[in-house]
Prior knowledge:
Elements: H1 8-13, E1 24-26, H2 32-41, H3 60-69, H4 72-82, E2 91-99, E3 113-120, E4 135-138, E5 147-151, E6 158-162, E7 169-170, E8 176-186, H5 190-206
Antiparallel strand pairs: 1-6, 2-8, 3-6, 3-8, 4-5, 4-7
Amino acid sequence: MSRISLDYDAFESAPVAEKPFPHLVVPHFIGNDDLKAVVSDLPEMKSGGSFPPEALKLTPRVAGMIAELQGPKLKALVAEKFGLDLTDAPTMLTVRGRTREKDGRIHRDSEAKLVTILLYLNPRGEDWASRDGCLRLLNGPDDVEDFDVEVTPAEGTLLVFPNGPATWHGHRQFVGTRYAIQLNYMATGRKARYELRRHRLSALVKRLPFSG
């Protein structure tokens, strides 16, 4: 079993873009060969929604990658890039395998989430040629076509942005396989503690044999 390599050098050299809100895009944060290995290892997720890793049967290779993503190195790099103090910020990580009709609607992430990190684990193929399912960083909350940046959810691309009052994002409707890992650095207030408790409960429920 080979360890999945994360391209921290590419992260460090990637510039922070300011429009439509501060964000960072790192193409090939996971290289092509490693991405193929990850995709072959990913568990099938027949239903939509987010799955805590504890609720999934992960190979040691994928579990190791997820543990590293939640580790101190990436957190320190994100904090440095955006000038944030994330020292005491807990992490919350989920995995998605399928996108449903209702997914991708324009939204901002919860205020309990200080930073959102998305890692896309799909091969680049014809599925994305229509641009359906490509995440858009929007200029406002009203129109998914009013975007400044569009991120194809493929080829190990990493997207990072601190959450704020104008961090609107979404995508055109897409139904099908769309693997993504979402990592959040959380605040420490009551709302964040509630979300973390709900996250842990979700992991327990989804591990039960009748949960599908």
